[in-house]
């Protein structure tokens, strides 16, 4: 009885405080919910970006433009609401642009940092010393480590902190391995020490076993063949590039000076015709006035598709924000239909679909590389993934276009020569007379040659359109040479001529420094690679950071991501790294300030080592001839820069690039392009 009473009393006595506690908890819960949802509401865009970057693609719909597309919007806002304030635009967050500060924060040796994705070990590199050791596949033999133990290994991966405990245990195991064992691994495994495989496996459905994706001995034979057949005879190259430039000039002539052109698509059309002719010696894709006219008529009334290049001033803002998928699905039918109607030549009829498909496949591959399917066996992906079905549909026109290229190849052309080499003529099975190896190579060369050149030229024109003074300096250099009496053909630009254009050369180099179209490359280490100790006394190290003073070994089977973009903008290597300063390549005083110009591996737009760009000699000529030809006849104007200059009552020929107009929104795929194209005006220069 007493107990029971006591019990009742106790309950009564506790009740009010329990209710109070409950009320307080509910109130705090509501407060937390309100605060967090408000925060989420404000930050939803950023949160979405963040979540998407850490989740496998299968859990979200890939937006494809992963490197932010906010630039256009914010530019419009700057023009209107903010009253054109002169504040520096915040760099939008992106994997590419954020990698350097992230590396610095994590403070690994040479700014390297390591991560663990599932079971894979990844090291990110933005410094020339490790970059060249890894890309050359050499490293320093671990036998030369003179400190008895591999402190560097631990230091490198200890920078990644608590979330990656498993990595630390892995490094400990590494440390415990006997030096004899390690010596064996560095001498016995593959001579180059690195491989692309399996880092590039998500390209396999696209370029199959072409030289870009091939492995080990297969790759060596293929690379040797392609080098021989493609670069064996470069005599015709300047003629071919000039023919393409003629076509481009005709197309530009049809465009009014107040019309705004999507430069990316214009240049993609120009370079695909060029590469097609280089590898086939077939003139079918030479410029055709009717196609260009027809293209203009329809594209002025619809948003710019991957193929259409012209839009009116009024529709510019709208069209640039149109979603990729929308514009491409509309254009697919239109373009294919129009081209088939107009062109009796099958390769010409396929060209629009090919260009659309290439635009789409780069996005699919990007999404695939970030998806969970990539971690599963290939057969599983093929059997169950909707992404694979989409990929196959898009690959149709690409394969058809490449097959036609192989069939149209004239005797003595690179594709014809390749078809006779064992490396590309294995196995009896041929479809329509084309082996799979040859088809894969045609796809590789068409894409690698076209997309990279068009993207690099687009970024160069972007920079020059924002810098009329430097643009004029190029013109002052190229015009007298092109129009000299010694030039036998009007407007023709030869290799000898471009050798006399140092400023043009510096502009291209500087544009490739700021916008390397392949912003990173990946290699898998087939042996331990030892990076020599970081010299703390050099200017290239940040004095505030505690540096590793011993050698650093990156263990076998690590994936190394070499960030070309970060190397090219590393403030320890480049004076005024974010500035467009072509003079740095010419002026001895400025040159001296750039440690990067002396340091092998600091400037690598074509990568380096055994798997560097095979088409570099072609690209050097293509870029210079096309740029000289364009600027000789046309001045390129960025309408946003023009509007900004006018509204500020400033002289639009100001030499300083306005950071508000500088594009940082990058659309990644194989190559990095300005998101949704690049809209410029071409104004014919006075004779
Ligand atoms: C501005 C123009 C170009 C740039 C910036 C460029 C850049 C690059 C880079 C960075 C790589 C290494 C990719 C990697 O390891 O992931 C590469 C590889 C390659 N490039 Fe280029 N490239 C250009 C033009 C060309 C041209 C015109 C061709 C041929 C027609 C070409 C054919 C190739 C091939 C076949 C590979 C693979 C080489 C191998 O793995 O052995 N490229 N390119």
TrEMBL record:
The chain crosses the membrane at residues 20-42. Residues 295-340 are annotated as: Disordered. It holds the Pfam family p450. SUPFAM superfamilies: Cytochrome P450. It comes from the Eukaryota. Its cofactor is heme. Coiled coil: none annotated. InterPro entries: Cyt_P450 (IPR001128), Cyt_P450_E_grp-I (IPR002401), Cyt_P450_sf (IPR036396), Cytochrome_P450_monoxygenase (IPR050121). Residues 298-312, 319-331 have a biased composition (Low complexity). Heme binds at residue 613. Keywords: Heme, Iron, Membrane, Metal-binding, Transmembrane, Transmembrane helix. Belongs to the cytochrome P450 family. This is Cytochrome P450. It comes from Cyclotella atomus.
């Amino acid at each position: 009885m007493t107990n029971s009473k006591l019990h009742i009393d106790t309950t009564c006595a506790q009740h009010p405080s329990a209710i109070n506690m409950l009320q307080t908890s509910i109130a705090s819960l509501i407060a937390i919910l309100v605060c967090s949802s408000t925060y989420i509401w404000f930050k939803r865009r950023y949160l979405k970006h963040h979540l998407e970057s850490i989740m496998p693609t299968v859990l979200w719909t890939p937006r494809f433009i992963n490197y932010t597309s906010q630039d256009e919007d914010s530019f419009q806002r700057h023009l209107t609401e903010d009253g054109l304030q002169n504040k520096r635009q915040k760099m939008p967050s992106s994997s590419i642009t954020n990698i350097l500060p992230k590396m610095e924060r994590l403070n690994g040796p040479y700014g390297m940092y390591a991560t663990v994705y599932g079971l894979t070990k990844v090291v990110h590199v933005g410094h020339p010393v490790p970059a060249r050791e890894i890309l050359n596949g050499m490293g320093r033999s671990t036998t030369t480590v003179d400190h008895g133990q591999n402190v560097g290994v631990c230091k490198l991966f200890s920078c990644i902190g608590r979330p990656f405990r498993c990595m630390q245990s892995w490094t400990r195991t590494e440390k415990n391995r006997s030096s004899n064992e390690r010596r064996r691994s560095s001498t016995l495994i593959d001579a180059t020490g690195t491989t692309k495989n399996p880092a590039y496996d998500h390209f396999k459905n696209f370029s199959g076993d072409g030289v870009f994706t091939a492995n080990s001995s297969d790759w060596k034979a293929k690379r040797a063949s392609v080098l021989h057949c493609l670069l064996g005879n470069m005599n015709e190259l300047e003629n071919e590039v000039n023919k393409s430039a003629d076509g481009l000039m005709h197309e530009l002539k049809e465009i009014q000076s107040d019309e705004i052109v999507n430069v990316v698509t214009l240049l993609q059309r120009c370079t695909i015709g060029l590469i097609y002719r280089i590898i086939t010696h077939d003139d079918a894709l030479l410029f055709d006035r009717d196609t260009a006219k027809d293209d203009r008529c329809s594209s002025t009334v619809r948003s710019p598709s991957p193929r259409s290049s012209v839009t009116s001033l009024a529709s510019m803002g709208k069209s640039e924000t149109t979603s990729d998928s929308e514009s491409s699905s509309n254009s697919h039918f239109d373009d294919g239909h129009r081209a088939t109607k107009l062109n009796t030549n099958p390769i010409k009829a396929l060209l629009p679909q090919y260009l659309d498909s290439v635009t789409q496949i780069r996005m699919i591959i990007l999404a695939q590389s970030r998806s969970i399917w990539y971690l599963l066996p290939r057969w599983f992906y093929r059997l169950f993934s909707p992404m694979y079905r989409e990929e196959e549909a898009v690959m149709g026109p690409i394969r058809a276009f490449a097959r036609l290229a192989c069939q149209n190849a004239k005797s003595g052309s690179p594709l014809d020569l390749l078809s006779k080499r064992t490396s590309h003529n294995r196995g009896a099975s041929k479809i329509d007379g084309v082996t799979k190896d040859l088809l894969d190579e045609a796809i590789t060369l068409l894409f690698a040659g076209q997309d990279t050149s068009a993207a690099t030229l687009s970024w160069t024109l972007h920079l020059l359109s924002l810098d009329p003074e430097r643009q004029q300096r190029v013109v002052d250099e190229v015009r007298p040479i092109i129009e000299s009496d010694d030039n036998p053909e009007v407007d023709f630009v030869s290799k000898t001529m471009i050798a006399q254009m140092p400023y043009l050369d510096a502009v291209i180099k500087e544009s490739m420094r700021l916008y390397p179209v392949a912003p990173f490359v990946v290699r898998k280490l087939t042996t331990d690679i030892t990076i020599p100790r970081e010299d703390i006394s050099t200017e290239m190290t940040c004095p505030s950071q505690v540096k590793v003073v011993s050698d650093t070994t990156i263990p076998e089977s690590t994936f190394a991501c070499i960030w070309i973009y970060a190397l090219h903008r590393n403030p320890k290597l480049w004076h005024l790294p974010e500035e467009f300063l072509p003079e740095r390549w010419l002026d001895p005083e400025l040159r001296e300030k750039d440690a990067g110009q002396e340091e092998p591996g600091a400037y690598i737009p074509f990568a380096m080592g055994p798997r560097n760009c095979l088409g570099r000699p072609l690209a050097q000529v293509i870029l210079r001839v096309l740029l000289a030809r364009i600027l000789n006849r046309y001045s390129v104007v960025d309408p946003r820069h023009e509007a900004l200059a006018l509204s500020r009552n400033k002289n639009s020929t100001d030499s300083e690039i306005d950071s508000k107009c500088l594009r940082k929104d990058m659309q990644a795929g194989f190559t990095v392009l300005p998101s949704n194209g690049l809209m410029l005006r071409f104004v014919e220069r006075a004779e």
